[in-house]
Design goal:
heterodimer; A: mainly beta; 7-stranded mixed beta sheet; 4-stranded antiparallel beta sheet; 11 strands; globular; B: mainly beta; 12 strands
């Protein structure tokens, strides 16, 4: 069966520090991968998605970036964190390819607090 | 642009009763999908149910059913026989294809459901 991991689970970082959040998926190949951010009391905002190694699409311009160095690894990064980067970051995967039907499966999330 | 609206920030339901969580959507695409997710206090998003825009029948998954009214652009979630473990945030979401032909999912702001013993 497929599983998705995220780490760290929680993170407290000062403003201006770098960030690296990691997401890995097991039990599937060539998945579509997604990074979402959820601000307190809000819905999910899509940040990045990837349909293959090295293929990253950004939905929202910001100081964050994403990379996919391996088929089942998705990394969210920042060179300098802002206070507004605080939130709950969720990684998700679905079966690769196009189509609207397949549901996305989410990881446990990383709670980031920028101080 | 697609949009999802959930107008109920919070709902209470008595244990063993049924509850309906509202969701309306707006899109000009003829082909789209509608999802409901549950988010317990732990934070993980759990997929509940899916409805396609061309599906003729309302989707059902155990105690969950989706009341799909295409002309009214509504996709309400009905939970029957509520249980204490149903207490959580519930998100409605819609998928369609972006300009690159890949799935893009837009989420509503959620409804917090509390089940009362």
């Amino acid at each position: 069966s497929q599983t998705i991991h995220q780490w760290p689970a929680t993170l407290v970082q000062p403003v201006g520090s770098p960030l690296s959040l990691e997401c890995t998926v097991e039990g599937t190949s060539n998945p579509n991968l997604y990074w979402y951010r959820q601000a307190a009391g809000r819905g999910l905002q899509l940040l990045f998605y990837s349909v293959g190694i090295g293929q990253i699409s950004s939905e929202v311009p910001q100081n964050l970036s994403a990379s996919r160095p391996q088929d089942r690894q998705f990394i969210l990064s920042s060179k300098k964190l802002l206070l507004s980067d605080s939130g709950f970051y969720l990684c998700a995967w679905r079966d690769g390819g196009t189509g609207i039907r397949d549901e996305q499966y989410f990881g446990p999330g990383t709670r980031l607090t920028v101080t | 642009a697609q949009k999802i609206t959930q107008t109920q920030p919070g709902m209470f339901v008595q244990e063993k009763e049924a509850v309906t969580l509202d969701c309306t959507y707006d899109t000009s695409d003829p082909s789209y999908g509608l999802f409901w997710y549950k988010q317990p206090s732990s934070g993980e998003m759990i997929f509940l149910i899916y409805q396609g825009s061309y599906d003729q029948q309302n989707a059902t998954e155990g105690r969950y059913s989706l009341n799909f009214q295409k002309a009214r652009k509504s996709a309400n979630l009905v939970i029957s026989a509520s249980q204490l473990g149903d207490s959580a945030m519930y998100f409605c979401a819609m998928s369609d294809l972006n300009s690159g032909g890949y799935q893009k999912v837009t989420f509503g702001i959620g409804t917090k459901l509390q089940v009362i013993p």
